[in-house]
Inverse folding.
């Protein structure tokens, strides 16, 4: 019986020796499952961070991995990949795996073969900075609009009213940045948020967020991923020791190891549609 994939990306791993568990045809190529991998896969239920890319080497043959994805096999033997997985991540009755999409399938790449899995380090680093910046921007946004709540909105990871949790509807992370969308509709107003006051002070709110982000970057605070287990479906958290306190957020992605990796993190707020806030986060990284 297939076991859940062991993942080492939470510790920052980029290279792993592994064993091929299965090669499943997919389109013009295949999805390769390993027993362990450093690749971070895109989540099929909340695809905010793209999957890693890189390569697999078997013997002297190397093939490109175009994307790492979630995969799962049911107790009845049904294999599903990515958006075709019919259940939520971690659902019982399924074994959870990481799949590696490849376009060419050499004969050496077969179940039981020894493989070396290598992640594209520059792409991973860019996504990790983008994801860390995304969380920091959301925390700074929560703080910047805290005075606009007339009712209890619950608390975010720093104890401020949880605008992010109440209003966020999509998040997309890319290399050194992110785009988040927040619904400012009737339900948010009923929950006690002053949408009119927010719209009238949009520029001031943006300035507050960017000032807070500059202060956090200047702190050089450590950042890490904490894990509850070694498989792909074990819970993970992003933890950052900010001057105001330690922020801890459930998160399956990858992250920078320190805010010292950033020259700056800035956001722009767009309210062209009065019911949809678009926050664009941009990173200037420290050059190695």
């Amino acid at each position: 019986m297939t076991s859940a994939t062991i993942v080492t990306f939470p510790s920052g791993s980029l290279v792993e020796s592994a064993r091929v568990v299965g090669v499943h045809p997919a389109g013009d190529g295949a999805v390769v499952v390993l027993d362990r991998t450093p690749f971070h896969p895109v989540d099929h239920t909340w695809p905010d961070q793209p999957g890693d890319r890189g390569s697999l080497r078997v013997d002297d043959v190397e093939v490109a991995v175009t994307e790492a994805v979630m995969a799962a096999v049911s107790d009845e033997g049904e294999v599903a990949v990515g958006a075709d997985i019919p259940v939520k991540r971690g659902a019982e009755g399924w074994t959870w795996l990481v799949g590696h999409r490849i376009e060419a399938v050499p004969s050496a790449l077969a179940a039981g073969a020894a493989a070396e899995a290598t992640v594209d380090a520059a792409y991973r680093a860019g996504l990790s900075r983008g994801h860390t910046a995304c969380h920091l921007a959301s925390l700074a946004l929560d703080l910047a609009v805290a005075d606009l709540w007339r009712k209890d909105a619950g608390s975010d990871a720093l104890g401020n009213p949880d605008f992010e949790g109440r209003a966020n509807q999509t998040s997309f992370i890319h290399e050194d940045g992110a785009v988040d969308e927040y619904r400012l509709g009737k339900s948010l107003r009923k929950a006690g948020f002053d949408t009119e006051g927010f719209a009238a002070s949009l520029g001031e709110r943006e300035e507050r967020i960017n000032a807070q982000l500059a202060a956090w970057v200047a702190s050089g605070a450590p950042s890490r991923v904490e894990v509850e287990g070694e498989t792909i479906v074990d819970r993970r958290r992003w933890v950052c020791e900010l001057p105001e306190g330690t922020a801890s957020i459930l998160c399956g992605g990858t992250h920078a190891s320190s805010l010292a990796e950033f020259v700056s993190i800035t956001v722009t707020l767009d309210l062209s549609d009065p019911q949809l806030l678009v926050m664009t986060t941009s990173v200037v990284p420290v050059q190695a």
